[in-house]
Every structure is written in structure tokens, then in C-alpha cells.
Design a protein that fits this description.
- The chain is mainly alpha-helical.
- The protein has one domain: MetI-like fold.
- Helix content is 79%, strand content 0%.
- The chain starts with a helix and ends in a 10-residue tail after the last helix.
- 35% of the residues are buried.
- The chain crosses the membrane at residues 33-55, 67-89, 101-120, 202-226.
Length: 261
């Protein structure tokens, strides 16, 4: 049974776990949530702009939106983070100081906005075109019809995909450590990694994994609840063709597919 004792000492050392727990909660968890929430909020704003440009009839708006989406969805997340975090480091120092923390948030926001933009686009286009035509018949202009009728209906259908995207951002936040964060700015993975090096075993990283699961597993069940409720409700009414495209957009996100590239 020596192998079992070795596994327990390597992954489940109680002393190492308890030692890193306060820092994991006070520093790692806090920064992971700050990075994730900030990147999501910025991504939502940028994503809506990209979506509106993407469904525009003007090629001057539609083509740049398509290029933006293809660029940030096509590049590996770690490559985008390093290009922005290191490429704009000198400019960032004059604005934010020596910390690369803001650049990490900006990089994640750009990645998230490309996926969120596709979620918004698919959700808006899943609304029956007759809704927009009815609004125009009532004298509403395009912008007012979108804002008051089409977008509110689409948002309900986007919720599962948007929550999935937030889960992806939470896991993607672990890549920001490549930029070399200050000790007070370390997220869950970096806190666990540093503690694992000092303790000589992987128990702190297991604690970091548990923290990620505490965040993501309830959200995953929330996604399933929204998805099942929406599908059940729509089954009683009429099928929505845009649901399949929304699912494909959410599933295409790098971290919902499990690849932190």
C-alpha cells in the first residue's frame, strides 16, 4: 500500500492544503472573480457592438465584425494574452503602472467579446423575422424595434450560452499568470502553483481545482436548468430554429470544450 500513501501525500496532504487555504480564499479566489467578472462585463458590451455590426446590411460594418470575430475565435487564448500583455506592456505602464493585471483583463475581454458577439447574433437572428416586420408596420424604426422587441426576446434564449461563456472565462483566467502578476494579484492557479513549489507536492493545486469546481459546477447546473426550462416551454409553443446555432456557438468556446490553449 505504499503507492496509496504516496498518492495521498502527493495530492491530499492536509497540512499543505490548510496552509494554502487562507491565501487561496483571500487572494486567489478574489482575483479570479475580479478578472472573470470584469472581462465578462467588458465582453458583453463589446460583444453586443460586434453582433449589431455583424447583422448589419452594410458591408462596412459587417465585414470588420466578421474579421474581428474570426481573429479572436481563431487564435489560441494564451497567444492572444501574451501578444496583448507583452506587446502593450510599455503603454500599459504609463497608464496602469507596472502591473499587467489590466492587460490580462483586456485580453480576456477581447476573446470573450468575439464569442459573446456570436451568441448575441445567433440569439437575435433566432427571433422570428415577423416580429421585426410587425414593429416596422407599427411605425417603429429599426433601432427602436431591435431595442424594445427583438433583443429582449433574444436575451432569454441567450442566457444558457452566456452562462457557459462566463464559465469559460473563469477557467481562462488561469492563463493570465503567464504575464507575471504581482503577489497580491495572483489568481487561483498561480497561488496553487507557487504553494505547490514551496511545499513540494501538488496538494495546493488540488485545492485550486476544488475552488474552480465550486464556481463552475453550480453554474453548469444553472445552465442546464435554463436550457431545459426554455426547451420545455418552447416545445409547448413552437420550435426555435436559432437554438441549435446558439448551442454550437457556446460549444465552440475554447474552455467549454476543455482546451486551455
Amino acid at each position: 500500500m505504499d503507492w496509496l500513501n504516496d498518492i495521498l501525500r502527493t495530492f491530499f496532504d492536509p497540512h499543505a492544503m490548510l496552509q494554502v487555504l487562507p491565501q487561496m480564499l483571500m487572494v486567489g479566489l478574489k482575483n479570479t472573480l475580479i478578472i472573470s467578472v470584469a472581462a465578462t462585463l467588458i465582453g458583453l458590451v463589446l460583444g453586443m457592438i460586434v453582433a449589431i455590426m455583424g447583422i448589419s446590411t452594410s458591408p462596412w460594418l459587417r465585414i470588420p465584425a466578421r474579421i474581428y470575430t474570426d481573429l479572436f475565435r481563431g487564435l489560441p487564448a494564451i497567444l492572444t494574452i501574451l501578444l496583448i500583455g507583452q506587446g502593450f506592456a510599455r503603454l500599459s505602464q504609463s497608464v496602469f503602472g507596472p502591473s499587467p493585471y489590466p492587460l490580462g483583463i483586456i485580453a480576456l475581454s477581447l476573446i470573450a467579446s468575439a464569442y459573446i458577439g456570436e451568441i448575441f447574433r445567433a440569439g437575435i437572428q433566432s427571433v422570428d423575422k415577423g416580429q421585426l416586420e410587425a414593429c416596422r408596420a407599427l411605425g417603429m424604426n429599426y433601432a427602436k424595434a431591435m431595442r424594445l422587441v427583438v433583443v429582449p426576446q433574444g436575451v432569454r434564449r441567450m442566457l444558457p450560452a452566456l452562462v457557459n461563456q462566463f464559465i469559460a472565462i473563469v477557467k481562462d483566467s488561469s492563463l493570465v499568470y503567464f504575464l507575471g502578476l504581482l503577489s497580491s494579484e495572483r489568481e487561483l492557479f498561480r497561488v496553487g502553483q507557487d504553494a505547490a513549489i514551496l511545499s513540494g507536492n501538488l496538494s495546493p493545486l488540488v485545492v485550486a481545482g476544488v475552488m474552480y469546481l465550486i464556481i463552475t459546477v453550480p453554474l453548469t447546473h444553472l445552465v442546464n436548468y435554463f436550457d431545459n426550462r426554455f426547451r420545455t416551454g418552447r416545445r409547448k409553443a413552437a420550435p426555435v430554429s436559432g437554438l441549435k446555432e446558439l448551442d454550437e456557438v457556446a460549444a465552440d468556446s475554447p474552455l467549454t470544450t476543455g482546451s486551455n490553449t
